[in-house]
Write a structure and sequence with these properties.
Order of helices and strands: HHHHHHHHHH
Number of strands: 0
Strand content: under 5%
Largest sheet: none
Helix content: over 70%
Shape: elongated
Structural class: mainly alpha
Radius of gyration: 18 Å
Distance between the termini: 48 Å
Length: 197
Amino acid sequence: MWWQYIAVFFGALLFDVVPIPFPPAFTIMLFLQIKYDLNIWLVIAIGVMGSILGRYILTLYIPFFASKIFKASKNEDVQFLGEKMKEKGWKSQMAIIAYSLLPLPTTPLFLAGGMAKIKPLYIIPAFFIGKFTSDTIVVNLGKYTSENTQNILDGILSWETITSLSVGILFIFIVLFIDWRSLIQKNKFQLNFRIWM
């Protein structure tokens, strides 16, 4: 039975290491918990650890890829945004917690953090609080509806998940194509689509 918990860990890690909005890691956690009748608290703890490791790895490798595929000016722009985020202190931490509680992909948060070269330890503690809380709620709710496993699986491609994916893509668009320096320094909204090398 131990291999199912390893699958929970690596499933959550794989869902959260990719740089595109993907289904939330709780979907694999919930699926494996229901399919194998696993201990719910172990699933949550192991799944959240896998998810955090995935997001940590994402923040480590994304600066390398960002420097290869985006213009230097776009990377500097996102780094400037990251510096502004760090200046906000506890307000930024509360924003990360609040964002992690929402049923939205956290990929844009970690893409921006990685591209801005924000140390992962600045984002991860607040992410952990939000992630652990939201995954606990979702996985526990899933346990109560486990008699309807087919409905849950059908719900993976529901209007909610499609909306969530769309919002995640919109946030990535916002991070990449808004000229943040112009917006913050000059209060001038500009889009810049010439970000690729």
